[in-house]
Write a structure and sequence with these properties.
about 140 residues, mainly alpha, Glutathione S-transferase Yfyf (Class Pi), Chain A, domain 2, 5 helices, elongated
């Protein structure tokens, strides 16, 4: 973690109290609601299928999709005219959502819902190439 702060040469929080509060709000939303929709209810089913004989439970995935799509749309809209999620620099909110998006980037075929959200894909590709993100994000092999 110290290497991350050194690489940024700033903090993941903003010095402006209003921006700091905005980052904190988004960080809370992402770590609770986005994590639940994107990881707990979707990725975990793909990584650890709960269907008969260890197969994917497609009903569970179908039920999770509205929340997944709504969450991805909210973030995609937020990124429409900005390079980072909240401020003009990398923040705690970016640090929370990047690894979550990383799991989704690795999903095969119809399970990968990111094609509908071009801002998210560009954002992930751009930020995952930053020096302080390389080696932290898992980009090598698809989930199955």
């Amino acid at each position: 973690m110290a290497g991350l702060y050194a690489a940024l040469s700033t903090t993941v929080f903003d010095v402006d109290p209003q921006k700091h509060a905005h980052i904190d709000t988004w960080a809370s939303m992402l770590s609770i609601y986005a994590f639940r929709a994107l990881i707990t209810d979707y990725i975990i089913e793909i990584k650890n299928p709960s269907g008969p004989n260890g197969e994917l439970n497609f009903e569970k995935l179908k039920n999770a999709q509205p929340a997944v799509l709504n969450t991805l749309q909210t973030i995609n809209t937020q990124l429409a005219e900005r390079d980072f999620l909240i401020t003009e620099q990398f923040s705690l909110a970016d640090a929370i959502i990047l690894p979550i998006l990383g799991y989704h980037m690795q999903l095969p075929g119809d399970l990968n819902l990111l094609a509908e959200f071009p801002n998210l894909v560009k954002y992930y590709q751009r930020l995952s190439a930053l020096p302080f993100c390389k080696g932290v994000l898992h980009t090598a092999k698809p989930l199955n």
